[in-house]
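Hey, why these numbers?
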Amino acid sequence: MSRGGVFLGVDVGTGSARAGLFDEKGKLLGSASSPIQMWKEKDCIEQSSTDIWLAVCAAVKSACSLASVAAEDVVGLGFAATCSLVAVDADGSPVSVSWSGDARRNIIVWMDHRAVDQADRINARNSPVLQYCGGGVSPEMQAPKLLWVKENLQESWSMVCRWMDLSDWLAYRATGDDTRSLCTTVCKWTYLGHAHMGQWKEADSRDMEACGWDEVFWEEIGLGELVEGNRAKIGRSVAFPGHPLGSGLTPAAAKELGLLPGTPVGTSLIDAHAGGVGVMESVPDAESKADLSDEEAICRRMVLVCGTSTCHMAVSKNKLFIPGVWGPFWSAMVPEYWLTEGGQSATGALLDYIVENHVAAPLLANHAASQSVSIFELMNKLLSSMSHEQNMPFLSALSQDTHVLPDFHGNRSPVADPKSKGVICGLTLDTSEKHLALLYLATIQGIAYGTRHIVEHCNAHGHKIDTLLACGGLAKNSLYIQEHADIIGCPIILPRENESVLLGASILGAVAAKKFSGVRDAMKSLNAAGKVVHPSSDPRVKKYHDAKYQIFRSLYEQQLSHRSTMVQALQ
């Protein structure tokens, strides 16, 4: 199998569209990004598919130009994106999902929480499909959002011909083939991917008739019309990630992207899952376990895809039902493995919020700009000097009086409580830069305790996770990664290439172009390890974090007690 050529990955995140080009060894040749527009009004967060496609085209052209890659060098293309919900009519034109009626606003963004009530009502039915998403749907999944549109925007509801996950829509826009991915449908639409187990293997690579929809579920929740007409509105056929779609790029899409018509396009992934594909085989020889088979070894790993939010991805050969954690999802990331998906809805977004809402932020931002470093790098330096000045036994001990529960956008896993609120314990009247640095440290620790809670919960329900891999923007922050290693007690492997999500997306293109026999084969060739961060060997650090972790766990229990007290008071 000749593996020459360049693989292109496109990722549409929350705030930008990015494109990256990789060679046959998984080395990044060049990348570029282009911002995308977002509208926010209370719990409603919306985007425009027209705007996103223009941003994708701009990013692809810029990346090719920066990397000096010609259109004919690109042998395959894959898309990844947030699990936002796209509405289009019979012509593929946008249909508004906004109270404003603005037709541009045809995407409900993944983090939109307008459908909390709808999610509660769906979960109250205890449908059998819900056991495959941790026991209940999240308001961030598609069924509650669809129900919200039907109940609130009847005109739009009647106009929509296709409801699509954003990454599926991108692939459809590029190829004209509306085959859906097992990743998006299984993870966000309650599609039962294991309906295909024993029927198809990844090597068969074809689009499969969508036999995994539970029609009774859709009828029970009041959305029966979506499964009428051979389920045309939500997906008639599905395929493994990386399956080649249609005849590749259509002439029109190729022209817009600056690529060649017919360039193979792989069935897509959600962005976090692309991060998993881009990093999960990045294990250096020194960290690999000689006594384990390949199949066992990959099941000991969890990937943290750390961006605006964090997704915690682990795979297993057997299905594991874990209360409050999404899954088990068959073939939703690594084909023919079951995926467990934990998550925290606000991590990078929470750190930004903590910093931007502190009175010392403008001053610190000016200092950072004058030193040509990020505000986070400057705070990391500041914390190091504070630790020395105060004769701390170790840097983490600076936060001994400050405790953060990071549920500022609810708790996705493992308590699955979208109504959970954030807590900061230990505030004073201090408004200095040092105080902001301290709050930032305590917030990082709160996020890491949340990840420890997820890892412990998964291991208590059948996983054997002992190694973490991290990618995404926050993985570039050395303090963030070291605190996670110390708090969870596992080594954290960082990938050689910073752009793991783009690499994962490009793997879909490489598989679609038949350069590899399948996704796992491509991962083994194109994933590569970089630095390994080990937990501190100082027993005092472990003792400190064990104590803070207990306080962290108690903050949620106290919140439940407070909530109950206030409900009773208002009865």
The radius of gyration is 23 Å. The longest strand covers residues 28-35. The CA atoms of residues 405 and 556 lie 7 Å apart. The mean pLDDT is 96.
